[in-house]
From TrEMBL:
CDD domains: HisKA. This is histidine kinase. It catalyses: ATP + protein L-histidine = ADP + protein N-phospho-L-histidine. Its EC number is 2.7.13.3. It comes from Chryseobacterium defluvii. The keyword Translocase does not apply.
């Protein structure tokens, strides 16, 4: 990620660079055109001045021819000739490439030429003037170097101003961002944003204040509902279960009445478990758990394996473990224990008797693999009340809870089916 100013500056610099590249040929064309116009004017002045000077001398025809011959011999770049047959007596302006006749340099130069008609002693002559225009390239080079220099100066100044602006203009935004990072709904601490004279930042702070106040209000309402539901629902459920337990111990019950009471007891137990799981999910969603503990994951895992040892033995399931020692993580120990127990209980419930379960723990992965006959539906696997199998004894919330706990800790939970084994992996 890049700062906002850098993102805005880069397109600007690219744009300026493109304009600079485009400007160089434009400069060349404009300056060359101006240069040619100036040379055309210069050539016209040379023609007029020469014509005026020769007419003013009032030479005879013989002297004029001698003067013209001498002029053509000693004045390079100009030529005065008698009118030839077929000459249309029209002026022309053109550019030619040739080697300098008066120099040993073999380079080819550009010349701007003017060919026009002058009258000397009332006789028409074709006067051609040639002026070197190669100097325009040097002018273009000087302009290009100057432009590049100022471009570098602009870039350096822009980068310098960016740093200054980041430290001054964006300071209110950085302060607001820092306070938002430290805000926690659990503590419900009030944020007091600093007053700023920048309209956009002030509007942002006011909008954030309203949003935070609304979020805190909703959070309090949800938390109160969760606490009330936990108290109000669990108490009658516990009373009903206690009454059913007493009823089931009554010797006067017929077998039919006992079966009905036992079914009611199972349904009530499942309802109580679903209620507890839903309340747990609500608390996780409301961020009502602290995740700043340092947890010994390997110790929690071994403790859960010991607690569930009898359940493994009842189904003759062999537990194979590959547990790395001293695995420390940051999180919530209660939620981590629930995640471990849910994965292990899920493996026990869906593993056929006389099979094995492999439990693996490394610095980066916690994995539980158990035997299975076919792959589970991955699309609905971690959804609430979805069924991983035809077994209806569970609440349908175990894997959903695992998913939420993993998200709470910023872990990743995944499932795959390989070599007739269901493999659930938690990437720590």
């Amino acid at each position: 990620m890049k700062p906002l100013l850098s993102k805005a500056t880069r397109p600007f610099l690219i744009y300026v660079l493109i304009i600079l590249i485009i400007s160089i040929p434009v400069y060349y064309f404009v300056v060359d055109t101006i240069w040619k116009n100036e040379l055309d004017e210069h050539n016209r002045i040379v023609v007029d001045k020469t014509s005026y000077a020769l007419n003013r001398l009032k030479l005879s025809d013989e002297q004029l021819d001698q003067s013209i011959a001498l002029w053509n011999h000693i004045q390079p770049g100009t030529n005065i000739q008698n009118i030839k047959n077929g000459d249309h007596l029209k002026d022309s302006v053109f550019t030619i490439l040739k080697q300098k006749s008066y120099s040993t340099d073999s380079n080819i130069d550009r010349f701007r030429c003017l060919s026009t008609i002058i009258h000397l002693r009332n006789r028409p002559f074709r006067f051609t003037v040639e002026t070197n225009i190669e100097e325009s390239q040097e002018t273009i080079a000087a302009i290009a170097v100057t432009t590049v220099f100022f471009f570098i100066l602009i870039v350096a100044g822009l980068l310098f101003l960016n740093r200054k602006l980041s430290a001054s203009v964006w300071k209110p935004f950085q302060d607001t961002l820092g306070k938002l990072k430290t805000f926690n709904l659990n503590t419900q601490s009030h944020i007091q944003f600093d007053t700023t004279d920048t309209t956009e930042f002030e509007e942002l702070n006011q909008s954030l204040n309203k949003l935070i106040e609304h979020s805190v209000s909703v959070y309090k309402t949800q938390k109160e509902f969760t606490e009330n539901a936990s108290h109000e629902l669990q108490t009658p459920l516990a009373i009903l279960k206690n009454k059913l337990d007493i009823l089931l111990q009554d010797d006067d019950l017929t077998e039919k009445q006992y079966d009905i009471a036992e079914d009611m007891n199972k349904a009530l137990t499942r309802s109580s478990r679903i209620n507890k799981n839903l309340l747990l999910l609500a608390k996780i969603d409301n961020s009502q758990f602290d995740n700043s503990e340092v947890i010994g994951f390997d110790s929690l895992l071994r403790q859960s394996l010991d607690v569930l040892h009898e359940h493994f033995e009842q189904k003759s399931i062999t537990v194979k473990t590959q547990i790395s020692p001293d695995i420390k993580i940051n999180g919530n120990s209660s939620l981590t224990e629930i995640l471990i127990n849910n994965l292990l209980i899920n493996a026990i419930r869906h593993t056929l008797p006389n099979n094995s379960v492999l439990v693996t723990l490394t610095n980066s992965t916690f994995e539980v693999a158990n035997f299975g006959e076919k792959e589970l539906n991955t699309e609905s696997l971690f959804k609430r009340f979805s069924r991983a199998s035809e077994d209806n004894s569970g609440s349908g919330l175990g894997l959903a809870i695992i998913k939420e706990i993993s998200s709470f800790h910023h872990w990743t939970i995944s499932y795959k089916f390989e070599n007739d084994h269901h493999i659930f992996s938690v990437y720590l």
